[in-house]
User: What shape does this take?
Amino acid sequence: MTRPAHRGEPMAVRLFRWFARVALPRDFYERYGSETVEVFKDAYRDAIGQSLGRTAVFLREFTMLATTSVRERLAGVRHAMRSLTRSSMKMPLNPDGCWRDLRHGVRMLFKNPGMTSLAVMAFALGIGSTATMFSISHGFLRDPPFPEQDRVVVLARHNPADNRIDPRITIHEVSDWREQQSTLEGVAAFVETSFDLSGVGDRPERVLGAFVTANVFDLLRARPTLGRGFREAEERPGADPVVVLGFRLWVSRYQQDPNILGAIVRVNGVQRTVVGVMPEGFHFPYIEDIWIPIEVDPVGVERGAGRRIRGFGRLSEGVSLDEAQAEFAAIARRLEVAYPEVNRDITVRILTFKDYAVEPEAAFLIHAMVVLVSFVLLVACANVANLLLARAAARSREVAVRTALGASRRRVVGQMLTEATVIAAVGGVLGLLVAHVGVVLFNRTLADIIPISWMVIRVDTTVVAFTFVLILFASLIAGTLPAWKASGVDVNEVLKDESRGASSLRLGRLSRTLVVGEVAFSCALLTVSGLLVKGVMQTVSELGFATKDVLTARVTLRSHEYPAGDDIAAFHRDLLERLEANPGVRGAAISTSLPGTTGGFTSYEVEGEPYTQGARRPTARRAGISPGYFATLGVSPLAGREFAWSDKQGSEPVALVNRRFADRHFPGEDPLGRRIRTHQLESESDWYRVVGIAPDMAMDGNRSSQSAGFYLPFMQARWRTVHILVRGPEDPSGLASLLRAEMSHVDPDVPLYEVAPLDRVVHLDKLPERTFGIMFAAYGLAGLFLATVGLYGVLAFSVRRRVKEIGIRMAMGAKPSRILWLNFKSGLFQVGTGLAVGLGLAALVSPVMREVLMDVNPHDPAVYGLVMVAMCVTGAGATLIPSARATRLQPIDTLRTE
Amino acid sequence: MTPTNLSSQAFQILLSLSDRQLHGYAIIRDVRDRTGGQVKLTASTLYSALKRMFEAGLIKESAKRPVPELDDERRRYYAISAAGKRALKREAERFDRLAAMARRKGVLRGRTT
Assistant: This one.
C-alpha cells in the first residue's frame, strides 16, 4: 500500500518504488532503496528533453532494476555457495557455463528487438492477467485469522432429504448441544447485526457488531488488549449489561482512551458498561467491531421461536471433524425424538468456519476463474513458442554448424531454453507490474464493499512465488518445443536446405497446430467473458421504475420505545405524511428492502397446493411496504388494489404478488382472492389474501428469473428496520436535510443512516458483477489480441519462407487471386478449426460459471454468434494482410532472395 | 583489496569522485557528461556498483554536506577513499601502459612515451 507521504507522486515513481521494494534483496533495499528511488525520480524528472523522454527512461530504469535485482540476488547465492563449498573440491555445476548461455541468450534477444518485445509483451499480458486473478482468488480464500482456524467449526441444521444446509439455529439448540456434547471445547453462538452507538455528548453512530455467547473469545483464542471478555453469568437474563469494543472502534470513536474500561456507552438505547477492548485486527465473525452478550434463556422462549443465531465451537484436542460429526448426529437423533415438531428429519452438519464464510461452491467458482484466465497465458505461451520456432528455423543453419563443430545437443537445448526463460522472466516481471496495477484498480472499486476483514487483496509473497512458478511454466512450455525441434535437426539436410531451414524442421504443421490452440483458447475465453458481460448488461438494463430522483435512508425503531406494531406504523405514517406535505416531494414510502437490489427471501405455501411434511417449500422474494410505495416509484399495480393504512394489525392479512409470482402459481387464473402464507422452521404464518398484482420490480436486483415475490403491508408485521424512500423534484440530494428535519420532528432520538440516492444503491449492488464483467472483457480482448498476433505472425512467416515457391508459381502464370487464395485458405482453415474447438470448450466451461452468469443461458446463441463473427473478422484480417503481400511479390525479386 | 582491474563503471565513478564529493544523481550526470553519453548509469546499476565499491573500501560516505539549502535528508554524498585513489591511479596507469603498447605497435597514433 502506498504510504501517505508518497501521495501525489507520479505513477511511474510509485511503481518504481514498489518494484524496487519487492525485487531487490532486503539488505540492499534497506541500505540503498530510498536513494535509488530518489535518483530515479531525478532522472525521470530531467527526462523531458531527451529523445523518447520519460518512457525511454522508465523502460531503461525498470529493465536495469530487474537485471540488478537478479544479479544482487545471485551474488548472495554465489557468496553462500562459495562459503559452503570452500573446503570441498569442486562446484557441481559450472556457473560460468550457465552465465555464458545467459549472456549469449540476452545478446541474441537484443539482436531481434521486434520479436523479443512481442514475446515479452505476450508473456507480460499472460502472466499479468493470471497473477491478477490469482491475487484476487488468493485474497478471497485466505484463512480466517484465528489461531488454529481449521479447528473452529460452525454447526448447521442439515436436512438430508433435500441436502439443504441451514445455519440458522435457535438458542434451544445451543443449550441442548451444550448439555449433551463432549467433542467440542464448547458450543458458542453469534449473530451479526448493526447497533446504534451513542454516549454522553457524542454523535450517534451506526456500527457493525454481533451478539455473542460469553465463551466466543475463549473459543477463538482471542485475548482482550484491555480489560476482559465476557463472563458466563453475563449471558443469563437479568445480568448487568456489558459491551466489548473492537480496537478500530476504540481508536476512531474513543481516541484510544485508556480509561474506557468502566465507561458507560449506549448501545441500541441501553446503557452498557465497557468491560474490554479486543486487540488490533480482531473482528468477529467478519468485520464487526463491537460485541454484546446473547441472552441465553431457553426457558423464556418457546421452542422453535426466538432470534435466529449461528452456532459454532472448537474441536477438542485430538478430536477429528468426523468424530464430532458422528456425536452431533447422535444428539440430533435424540432431539428429533424429543421435539419432533421442530426437529423432524433434521440432523447437524459441522463445517469449518472457513467453509462457512466462503462456501465451497464459491471457492470452486473462484478457482474456475483463475483457470479460465490462465487461458490468456496459454495463448501467450503458444504465441511465444511460435515466435521462437520461427526464429529457430531462421537459425537452423547456425545450430547445424554449431552441432557439426561439436556442440552437444544438451548445450543447444540449454541455449534455447535459456532464451525462453529470459523472455519469460522479463515478461513475468512486467506481468507482476500488470498484476499490481490490476489489483490497485480492483481494490479501488471493490475493497470497501468486501464484507470480510481478512480478505485482503494484494500482490504479496505468495503471489510473487506463484508468478515465479508461472514464469518457469511459461518458459518450459514455450521453450521446450523449439529447443527440441532445433536440436533434433539433421545437420546434412539443413545445410542442403534452401528454404531457410523451415522445411527440414517440418515446422508448418506444428506452428499451425499452435495457432489453432491459440484461437481455440482465446475463443473460449472470449465466449465466457461475453456471457458475463451480457449478464451485467442485463442487470443494468431498464429497471422499470424511477431511481434517479429517489432518496433512500434506513431507520431502526427500538423495541422498548416502539413496542407494538401499531406504534411502528404510527411513527412511519406520521413521518410519511409530514414528508408528503412538502411541495417538493412527489411521494414517500416505506419498504423493508429496496427495489433493484437483492432483497430478502422466504419459504411460502400457496393455499390448496399439496406439500409433504419436511420437504423444501418454494422460496420467493418478500418485502414489507407502506401505502404509496408504487406511486413513489412511478408505477402502479397491474390489477387489484394497493395497500391502505386500513390494512393494519387485527384486520385481515393481505398480500400483493408480483407478475412473476402470479405466472408461477396462477397461470391463466385470477390470483385475486387466493391465499398464501410464509413457512419457516416448520412454523407457519397466518394466511394472506392476495388483493393485487404488482409489476416486476427487480426484487432480486435483476440477477435471475428467481425474482418471483410478494409484498406484505409493513403495518401488519413488526419490521423494526426499514428503508424510507422519498421522491423529490429532480436532484434527491437536497432531500436529505428535509428528511432529517422531518425525522427530528417525529422523534429526535432515532438516527437515520445509509442515506443515499436509489440509483447509487442499485449501482453499488451490481458493482461486483460489473467489475468481474469488465475484468473478463479485458482478459477476453487480451486473448483475442494475442491470438490475432499469433495468427498473423505464423502466416507472415509462412509467406516469407515460401517466397521462392510463390515466385515460381507466378512466373508460371498463376494469377494473384490464386496466390491470395492459396495463403488465405490455410489461415481460414486454422481459424475455423480453432473456432470449432474453442466454442466446444466454451460450451463445456460456461455451465460451471452458471452461478455468476446471472440467468444468462450458458449456451446463449447471440454471444456464441458474436464471438464467431469477431474471431472470423480478426482472423480474416490477420490472414489477409500477409496473403495480400504475397500477391504483390515480383517473380524476379523472389528468385533473387537468399 | 587485491589489485584486480576495476570495472569500467567503477573506474568512471571513481573518476567522478576524484576531485569532489557527489550524491547519486550527480554522479550519473557527471559520468554521462564526461563520456559524452557513452557510459549511462541507471539508478539501480549505480547503487549496485557503489555497494560493491563500498564493500571493497574504494569509497566512503561523506559526513560533509556541501550546500545546506540543496541538502536533502534522503541524499547521501559519496567520497573517494585513500584506497580508492590508489586503485584509480593504478588503473589509469595501466591504461596508460596499454595505450603506450598500442602506440608502439602503431595501433594508436600519437607520441610514444
In short: Chain A has 27 helices and 23 strands. Chain A touches chain B through 23 residues (CB under 8 Å). The CA atoms of residues 649 and 662 of chain A lie 25 Å apart. Chain A has a mean pLDDT of 82.
